[in-house]
């Protein structure tokens, strides 16, 4: 990519503004993955299409969530006359759905407690009377009765053995799911029982932290931000596989599954895809480091920009990085190299041939998936170059930041479109043949073509007319919205 040299442009006719984010809790996120400060209004002006990825959620601190959980606990304690520790167990095991718990309690309270494993199915056979010379079944020591504790199952052990047992369970990451020490006994230890038998303050704090994490993860409306060392908790009253952006660390993720946002691919499908990619890690390493030869002069080329439209520096031949075809044949109407052409007679071939065809199909989709991921990283470098050139222009009094804002908007939109395009390939890989796949591949090809056109123009900002660039932005975003609207599942 050549150096970026921009001519000063007025900003009074710009449709793209960078509005500041005054209220992360109430905004409909549009540019969620890359910039939580950009709302959807600025892109709705040229497209007049409601963003299908907009999602209503709130960003909470730990104290806010503790209040939310305590309200649920208090409600259950009051209505069912339960202890807070017992209420926590029931809420944890029923995903904090109080209505379900109350309904089950009305039908059969004993069955509710048995299912929650806080009460044994049958009465314990052990003698509940503790003699003065009680012998602990674990350490075989004679213990005074005041140091002997037990759960509803009747299994009793001395306090030092309970404490050692709980410390061992905590070291393995368990808290809410700790069961009785008795042989094959699955009765759960309630929070008050665990804390009463943990003497060290640091262990009590550790248990409380682990239990709180369990409570949040079991609550269908809550999700920890997966960002490193981030304490923000997201609440969405209508849980869906939608994009969420942390206002603190700017991490973007899917609310439903907690991994990176992956529309239009479903949560279950993207997990299968990522597992398959991990299993074929050597293939991924090869493709990531792969170089290609110019199809005309055969000089070795390494792609150093996000655009798949490459021009050989030696012979000036324009070709597609993915299929190595002449770029003139990659018209905007249909992007053939984004479609995998399956062998129609593969069912009649040998098992070896079928396995070879399956690998070929996977490599086709993985290479394009990985190529867009790599392009995203390379386009970050392009964005940095644009920012540097803007700073130089501003310092030389050649326009202001507002004058050049449209270039940053173009780079941000390019990343968003390419990110969506990247995750169309796992979706297409698992999509069954039929009219729906045909429609999807057509829209995918349309988006592919417009993203490459936008990438080409962003990388050549110095010779790209502002009006032409903004028009390309509008077309690319319309293609993206159409695909997302038609294929993202609720």
From TrEMBL:
Q: What is its EC number?
A: 2.3.2.31
Q: Does the keyword Kinase apply?
A: no
Keyword Iron-sulfur in annotation: no
Location in or out of the cell = Nucleus
The record, for InterPro entries, names: Ariadne, BRcat_RBR_TRIAD1, E3_UB_ligase_RBR, IBR_dom, Rcat_RBR_TRIAD1, TRIAD_supradom, Znf_RING, Znf_RING/FYVE/PHD
* UniProt keyword terms in alphabetical order: Metal-binding, Nucleus, Repeat, Transferase, Ubl conjugation pathway, Zinc, Zinc-finger
Q: Which domain of life is it from?
A: Eukaryota
Citing just one GO molecular function, the answer is: zinc ion binding
State the Pfam families in the record: Ariadne, IBR, IBR_1, UBA_ARIH2_N
Q: Name one GO biological process term.
A: protein ubiquitination
Domain RING-type, residue spans: 132-341, 136-180, 297-337
Region Disordered, annotated ranges: 1-28
Q: Give residue spans, biased composition: Acidic residues.
A: 12-28
Annotated catalysed reactions: [E2 ubiquitin-conjugating enzyme]-S-ubiquitinyl-L-cysteine + [acceptor protein]-L-lysine = [E2 ubiquitin-conjugating enzyme]-L-cysteine + [acceptor protein]-N(6)-ubiquitinyl-L-lysine
- A cellular component term, taken from the record's GO annotations: nucleus
Which enzyme type, at the first EC level?
Answer: transferase
In terms of PROSITE patterns, this protein maps to: TRIAD (PS51873), ZF_RING_1 (PS00518), ZF_RING_2 (PS50089)
Q: Which family does it belong to?
A: Belongs to the RBR family. Ariadne subfamily.
| Name under which the protein is recorded | RBR-type E3 ubiquitin transferase
Instruction: Give the originating organism.
Output: Owenia fusiformis (Polychaete worm)
